[in-house]
Protein 1
Amino acid sequence: MQAALYALPVLFLTIFYLYPLLAILRVSFGASLAEAMEQVSAALRSPGFWRVLWFTTWQATVSTLLTVLVGLPLAGVFARFDFPGRGLMAALLTVPFVMPTVVVAPAFLALIGRNGLLNAWLQRLFHLDAPPIQLEQTIWLILLVHVFYNVAIVIRTVGGFWSTLPPTLAEAAAALGASPRRRFWTVTAPLLAPSLVAAGLLVFLFCFTSFGVILILGGLRFATLEVEIYRQAVSYFNLPMAAFLSIVQLVFTFTIMALYTRVQARLSRTLRLRRRAFARRPASWRQWAVVGLALAATWIGVLSPLLALAVRSFTLGDGGPTLLYYQMLGENLRQSAFFAPPITAVRNSLVYALATLAISLPLGVIAGYALTQPRSRWAAILDPLLLLPLGTSAVTLGFGYIVAMGPLRVSPWLPPVAHSLIALPFVVRTFLPALRALDRRLREAASTLGADPFRRWWTIDAPLLLRALLIGAAFAFAISLGEFGATLLIARPDRPTMPMVIYRALGQPGLMNYGQALAMSTILMVITAVSILLIERFRLPQGEEF
Amino acid sequence: MLEVRAIHKRFAPDKEVLQGVSLTVEPQEILCLLGPSGCGKSTLLRIIAGLERADQGQVLLHGSDITETPTHRRSVGLMFQDYALFPHLNVAENIAYGLRMQGVSVAERRRRVEEMLALVNLEGYANRSVDDLSGGEQQRVALARTLAPNPTLLLLDEPVANLDRLLREELLEALRRILKHLQVTTIFVTHDQEEAFALADRIAVMRAGRLEQVDAPAALYRRPANTFVAAFLGFRNLLPILEWRDAYTVCTPIGAFSLPVPSAARSATGFRLLIPPDAAVLDSAPSSATYVPLVGRVIDATFRGSVFRLQVALKENEKDDNVLYFEFRTRGREVLPAQGEPVQLWLDVAQLCVVQEG
């Protein structure tokens, strides 16, 4: 009975993850070895392939370096100082991590795009004819959004580790004659290096597989592997090329994932040794100034694009306030790109998100229990299997479904299945630590007090694990709502989700379409923000690393 | 050599941890800052090291004011309670760190590391990882690291607090041997009076941000300045004084005693009579004239190895003021006095002293 239950997540991952991936391999390499060689050499000879690979790599590298550059000082402030608003700052940093790309990309356009809020203000203030900020369709805007997305990873990972370094280490170095600068370079920096590498690898991975940001902000000029897979599969219907690109990307992402898990394992080992955090109140006005600056930068950096989006969605062009964009969502324009009033997408998205919860939560709980079984066969299979989807891009997954699922590929169940697969590792990662932290003696005490196994679970496990489960649920919900890459490939056009509506509206000309995108983005942002509030409300105080 | 002048430090408006502390440390002296936790002793040490800023007052080293000098230019060695060994460096690299900061050549560094390892009895440990060391070994590496750059002044913050009892005694002896051998001026902080006695040339007892008494260990033990110091050193027999019959004779709840020397304190309030636990002998009367007889009843007897302790009630009711605590040598005694048994004591009045309340 138990074994059958534990087999469920393995079965799910096999059918909906491994099988589609194998299908991509088959498409890429064809039926015979000769055919495979030919396919590969043809792909390698095309200049497009090398251009895309080069762009993908360098933009990810630059994005990572910039993110570290911005994140490291903030991590230091976060680790070393205890100040009012510290908890709120931590909560705020979850926002970019969970916000969908279809919200963030339009949000940055609304803030610093050609017709963005900032340009409008500057033009009015200095009576300029042309918008002074010209970042639209440039690499700079893409890099900026990548920093926005990933800086929280650096702050959480490095800052969390930094806060456990005893301050006596730097003080000992001072007493031994090291100046502040040498203290940083000889003591703090070497000790932070592993956490910095872990954070850097994760940021690199996310930027390497960046999809929505590039698709929306890059136009036709920029394409990562991920975007190119989508274009080859959907626009040119060149399935072998798309499959080949997917394989190349998988090789890269799995390598990075493998490196990341190794560094991460070493980090959590050292972290376990020292659980204490050493944050102190700022002691001088100079330290207060540094803290204030960091706080202001975080608040402005995170909130200004999102607020600009909301403001823009209620403003008619350059004119006054309006609700028109929201009213338009309920109408099915004849020349519009939609089959149904866009507002139905809200309902579709919510239904998909609930279905995702219904699939991913039970599977996540079962997987969590299976993983905590000592010497379980299923645990040995599940552990690496659960990590793989984290390193697999959404577009690859969606593409896999297209080539593998046959008639099922138009099923309305496929999007929630894909969303569940993407959400499952997150659910397990929030649920598992709580399960592991559950003291075995509590259960033993309950047993000696006469609780049968079920009552023991209901009275001991369930209340203690509920918190972790709620966080996992909120994550899964938010992930499903914002999922873009896989959905774009597998959702039926007559049942669009909110991200699809936003993307399509952004691609259409005219103020009304743009306005609808803004309005829909704002709705999605608000729903996601509620999920984030839930996550932060239930987050356990110890959870400093994400 | 080191002079601390009227140091004040406040962590919060209502939390003044140092209230005007002044102190002088002589060259080659080992001075101990002794006091209960929260008395400000570690803060004073951190101010001397430059890790904390004083609100008022000065720190002078060799006569020059270093109050504003940053830590890394002070040439003071500081050893932390948690040792603060650098986990990314091995034993030799830890010890060489201070020399590296001074720009000492690689060859000289290597020689000095060997010298330090020999000094702390850790030859052959150079390439060990600091994570693989036992608590005692870590402590010795930390000491070697602190001593390697030849600091003018050595500061030790609870240097053996994290070790178990046996190891602590052993390392205290080694520490005193090393410090005296190197003739390095040392201030060390502890809350344990036994550690202070074992290591210090002079002890400065602190309480709530003030110095209560600065004295050599033996003098401190014989003449504690007040009841706080006495209680902190472990004295329990502090009897209230009812009246003075004359300059020699003091009346207490358990009777009158004639002191061998006249007391300057003639007021009954504000003073107590201190009876050291080893001031009495049991049963047979000693020949000396300073012994007076006392009769009591055993309330409790505990065996402590070379000594045993008796709680003795000197009157029928067992109020605190009527109970004294004594220690006697175990040698030559098969059976301890049993609870409730009457005992005959002889008290040496030459060892009694009058202590100010405070």
Protein 2
Amino acid sequence: MNLTLRIWRQPGPDAPGALTTYQVGGISPEMSFLEMLDTLNEELILRGEEPVAFDHDCREGICGACGMVINGRAHGPERTTTCQLHMRHFSDGDTIDVEPWRAAAFPVVRDLVVDRSAFDRVIGSGGYITAPTGSAPEAHATPVPKETADLAFEHAECIGCGACVAACPNGSAMLFTAAKVVHLNLLPQGAPERGSRVRGMVAAMDAEGFGGCTNTGECATACPKGIPLSGISVLNREYLRSLR
Amino acid sequence: MTSYLDYTVGQPISDAKAPDGPIEQRWDRRRFEARLVNPANRRKHRVIVVGTGLAGGAAGATLAEQGYHVEQFCFQDSPRRAHSIAAQGGINAAKNYRNDGDSVRRLFYDTVKGGDFRARESNVHRLAQISVEIIDQCVAQGVPFAREYGGLLDTRSFGGVQVSRTFYARGQTGQQLLLGAYQALSRQIAAGHVAMHPRTEMLDLIVVDGRARGIVARDLVTGEVSSHLADAVVLASGGYGNVFYLSTNAKNSNATAIWRAHRRGAHFANPCFTQIHPTCIPRSGDHQSKLTLMSESLRNDGRIWVPRAAGDSRQPQDIPEQERDYYLERIYPAFGNLVPRDIASRAAKVVCDEGRGVGPGGQGVYLDFADAIGRLGRAAVAARYGNLFEMYERITAEDPYRVPMRIYPAIHYTMGGLWVDYDLQTTVPGLFAIGEANFSDHGANRLGASALMQGLADGYFVLPATLTDYLARQPGAPVEAGHPAVLEAVADATGLLDRLLAVDGDRTPDSFHRELGGLLWDECGMARDEAGLRRALERIPQLRTEFWRRIKVPGTGEQLNQSLEKANRLIDYFELAELMCLDALHRTESCGGHFREESRTPDGEAERRDEEFSYAAAWEFTGTGSAPVLHREQLAFEYVHPTQRSYA
């Protein structure tokens, strides 16, 4: 199929950017969205133009590196990561808009590449269990009910891609933060740091410039891993509990 | 000029530094004999760790917890994205929670045998011992392993072993273990004990007075190339499967860190030992950028077949039962579809080479669940494999409940890597290699669920003990940034980048990478023979010459330039590919993932030649295109006696 792409090009963080139009042909429905961009980039290089920069790595939906806003939606029309979006979901002759994540806390580095290091700093502010290597008790010393372990896992599936922030009209990181708080606070191993964890992570989230939550729910709709929106209410409850 | 093929044989490696005595006591003995660093002095030591996967993340966090100052590097935008995250199946540990006869001894035995007797016994035994501590450590960190209703950990059997020793977190075990290590690392970063350098790629190793004292790295955003100095350097940069272009590795995983260390004196061991996984989704066309693994567990219920006749282009449902060839069940009646990875992969290649492959390009075989659905019902099959079926359908738009899956083997893991001694130290003092970056524990074939075990064993437990001994013995005066060796390494790395940018040719980095990968896959892939390897060894230098004449890298070095990153990694892939082929050519036996057509038993199976090849081949670099020197580390098997594997 033949497509018209309107891609955000921006040479650097402080340089102005603009949507640039490209035509790309010979796209097969089996291609992933990133392979479609690979095809464009090969042509650009041979024409002596600079290829479109975008983050990607595992290309199987688990590393969380890729992410772009496609026709106004984070990761595009299917609920999956951009690397797992295939061109069969588009039609010959389509015009597709491709933009980077838009959020104050995720400055553009170049083209479709953004700086998501704010997420790392949120994790560093309490998103862990303090268990220095060698200090662990026997694994079976603390049984964890299966329901609890499964619920913790469901939240631990977050891949840190940032789609939740990109989808949120406020640029909020509540779903991301909630995913980690719920995962660790549910587990008995995480209990001793339950309060300091949620306070630390929420403070870091605010300091990084993420917006507040207004219960829009776009985050959970965009999340490729299906992190439940209910996590945010657990986050709020844990936060209030930690202040008592 | 002598040919690259005329390698010479150097001094054998006589001492791998493993203690002697009963194998169960060797690790204790090594730890007791290791010197320690006074806690007050530890913060004065700087250690560089390259990579943040299971091995690197675990090592960085642990060294920082012990009080050392760690400088850590990854090319990804965050340490959480290292390719360990994509591991699906699980992690082995000899906990024997199932009371099914497992033990440290049995895990040791299975690993040595599974590696086709090409691993060092002392290392493997230590790995089995440490496996139990890893599970404790990960549970304490909050890794949400699968649990039973009683609240205890669940395990499953994996990779054809007879005990259930594999701990797992659905199909995302690697993700959960990596996030555990990443969170521990993040805590140390926040505390200031680890200085994290994301989006920064190692370009060279700095060696001063024969010791590793730092690295040259490029900031991938600004393009700045700079030196980073330390008392020791740890490479945890993963394997080199991406030399094949198409593999299950992440797109940016690369061999530059280990290869440039090799160029600076670290021997590279067993490069031809590569693992090909039988159950990957076949390529769908020339645009294919990577391959996706489907868990090995599918072979528990799926039946593998191809049409009996070559060139049969009918839809699978139109091919009657008697015109199908369930070739694994036919050739290996005892193991059927559950033969080990190397056997299943080679058999798929054979039927496809006969023209009986299915799907686009004939590069695929069916993995059919119709019988399982008939026997167990659709719901039971969905409960076992639902998420995998969904993943398959997302990629191929085919419903595996109705149409058989198509699978084909793909490069998945590399057992070879930098040669290390028992302390995980390379032949360059002060340079350590851990995880998939080293060659150590899996011999010629890795068992399922053992990569995660080894990465974490190295990072959490082995390296922190042995590195301390090195630091205690080698205080070493600080190296100045203006030292000639530092300036030379920076100039070398920068020079290569400038040279790439200056060519301004007419071929893209990917076009060269595809060509090199295709060549390697054909001649040094699932089956190798002398003629093919010689063809590859003739073609690779030609391709390298063409690369330096025709490569096109747009943009500059002072910016985020992904074409430059790719081209720079390709320089190393050409040299590595050459060494892989030479290693494969010199090893005229079949063992594990290395199958030489010339070395097979009368019934066509791989034939090992222990008398000639019971050694690890450690290659010394002598220059680009110049014949390397082979150093042999003879392997002794005191506890597990070599036998020929048979699955018929």
